[in-house]
Amino acid sequence: xxxxxxxxxxxxxxxxxxxxxxxxxxxxxxxxxxxxxxxxxxxxxxxxxxxxxxxxxxxxxxxxxxxxxxxxxxxxxxxxxxxxxxxxxxxxxxxxxxxxxxxxxxxxxxxxxxxxxxxxxxxxxxxxxxxxxxxxxxxxxxxxxxxxxxxxxxxxxxxxxxxxxxxxxxxxxxxxxxxxxxxxxxxxxxxxxxxxxxxxxxxxxxxxxxxxxxxxxxxx
Length: 220
What we know:
This protein is of the alpha/beta class. It has one domain (13-218): Vaccinia Virus protein VP39 (Rossmann fold, 3-Layer(aba) Sandwich), CATH 3.40.50.150. Helices cover 40% and strands 20% of the residues. The chain contains eight helices and seven strands; from the N terminus they run H-H-E-H-E-H-E-E-H-E-H-H-H-E-E. The protein has helices at residues 13-21, 25-38, 55-63, 76-87, 129-138, 156-166, 172-184, 188-197, and strands at 46-49, 69-73, 96-100, 113-119, 139-150, 204-207, 212-218. It has a seven-stranded mixed beta sheet with strand order 3-2-1-4-5-7-6, with helices on both faces.
């Protein structure tokens, strides 16, 4: 099935509110578990690209006391919810920052992140090379990378079946976005080609569910 790109930014107020209210406990907990397995305790600050309403940033900050965690997103509507969530956990305020900006030139306060993560951003990008270039710009040499994203199924019918299985009971906006994201996602082989072209052949790509792939490893 040919890729069908979708908008890069999720900046509608109703869309942001739906994502902020959605129950992503299972996938986001799994992402943090992958981080713990692949990275362990980070040796320095962590950057999450495409942080959305901030749940993964806050989970990482809770799991690793003392570690600074920054989240970057292009949609101010999403970041408004992230900042509200941070406001409910004032004990994290000294270590968590949310920043508005788009890849590859979004403002970053550091260039020495010990780990760079991203969850469900890659499929939104019209130029996927922007993700890998931003990681190289932001990270210290040898920094850990962990990227989780959807991968594109073989047909629209397969995508519809995945949405029916995992999106049952969700609001229409989430089901619609889920379907569009499956059509916009890259295949594992396409991601491997992106990494070769970015000069990052050492990063590994593996499928970790019937709809998710994981990119992990260390930058040069």
